[in-house]
């Protein structure tokens, strides 16, 4: 007995239904996935950090001009450049903002130092003297350079231990102190201060009445003196300068005033 062939054929399945043959040829590619396009770069923003490089360059110039005290114009330019850097975007990129701040600080320090120096130059300007040695313009005089007849202003309540300069002025200007006598201590080793005080009191007291025209006990004036320090002694400073003092400012010399 021979088995009957199954229904259908090579192009049919066991149930006699046609079999779908896949198309021949190369396999197809999977569907493509498209990514969103990058946004265009705005035309005003350089694409490679050129703005950051320009900002750093300005900061470097600002720092250089701040450090070099060429003139006031260089400080102005430095501050302007620093402000331009600081006014730029703060996006975390290296734009020289630290150098910009440093430039401003340095310029401020320079300005303060210049003002202080100018004040000191004016305040410590030496007094002018004429051919006779009289002070003709207000200014500073070193204590060891005082001369008899020099008038100046003395702060009676300062209590300074050492005086290096005094503010001398022409005697026809208001003042409260005037040098009325000078004498030198003997050479040798620096004396004990108590000995200097005794010698100064004795010498200035003896010269007071002949110069003022009134005894010290009856006068409404007082006297003091400047004497060498141990440091100035090393430079041959031996002078005791006797100074008559008025309680209020006076105009003109106190010599022969009878006060």
What is shown here, in short?
The protein has helices spanning 50-67, 72-87, 97-123, 193-212, 230-233, and strands at residues 128-129, 135-137, 139-142, 151-153, 165-169, 175-184, 222-226, 239-250. With 259 residues, it is an alpha+beta fold.
Give a verbal description of the structure.
The chain is α+β, with helices and mostly antiparallel strands. 33% of the residues lie in helices and 17% in strands. It is built from five helices and eight strands. It has helices spanning 50-67, 72-87, 97-123, 193-212, 230-233, and strands spanning 128-129, 135-137, 139-142, 151-153, 165-169, 175-184, 222-226, 239-250. The strands form two sheets. Strands 3-5-4-6-8-7 form a six-stranded antiparallel β-sheet, with helices on one face. It has a two-stranded antiparallel ribbon with strand order 1-2. Helix 1 (50-67) packs antiparallel against helix 2. It is rod-shaped. Residues 44-48 have low confidence and may be disordered.
Quaternary state, please?
A: single chain
How much strand? 15-25%
Percent of residues in helices comes to: 25-40%
Radius of gyration: 48 Å
- N→C terminal distance: 171 Å
Tally of helical segments? 5
> Largest beta sheet: what is the strand line-up?
3-5-4-6-8-7
From the spread of the alpha carbons, the general shape counts as: rod-shaped
Poorly predicted parts: 44-48
Number of strands: 8
Which sequence of SSEs, written as H and E, runs from N to C? HHHEEEEEEHEHE
Q: How does the helix and strand content classify structurally?
A: alpha+beta
Largest sheet: 6 strands, antiparallel
> pLDDT average, as an integer?
78
């Amino acid at each position: 007995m021979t088995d009957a062939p199954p229904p259908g054929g090579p192009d049919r399945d066991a149930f006699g239904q046609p079999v779908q043959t896949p198309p021949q040829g190369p396999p197809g590619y999977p569907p493509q996935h498209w990514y969103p396009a990058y946004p265009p770069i705005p035309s005003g923003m350089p694409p490679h950090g050129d703005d950051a490089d320009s900002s750093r360059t300005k900061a470097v110039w600002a720092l250089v001009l701040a450090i070099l005290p060429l003139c006031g114009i260089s400080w102005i330019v430095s501050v302007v450049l620093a402000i331009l850097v600081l006014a730029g975007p703060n996006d975390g990129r290296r734009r020289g903002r630290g150098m910009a701040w440093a430039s401003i600080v340095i310029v401020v320090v320079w300005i303060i130092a210049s003002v202080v120096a100018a004040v000191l130059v004016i305040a410590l300007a030496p007094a002018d003297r004429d051919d006779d040695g009289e002070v003709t313009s207000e200014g500073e005089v070193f204590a060891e350079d005082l001369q008899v007849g020099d008038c100046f202003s003395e702060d009676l309540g300062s209590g300074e231990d050492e005086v290096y300069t005094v503010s001398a002025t022409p005697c026809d200007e208001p003042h409260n102190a005037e040098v009325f006598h000078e004498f030198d201590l003997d050479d040798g080793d620096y004396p004990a201060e108590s000995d200097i005080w005794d010698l100064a009191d004795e010498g200035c007291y003896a010269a007071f009445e002949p110069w003022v025209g009134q005894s010290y006990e009856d006068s409404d004036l007082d006297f003091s003196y400047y004497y060498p320090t141990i440091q100035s002694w090393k430079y041959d400073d031996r002078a005791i300068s006797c100074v008559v003092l008025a309680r209020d400012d006076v105009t003109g010399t106190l010599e022969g005033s009878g006060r």
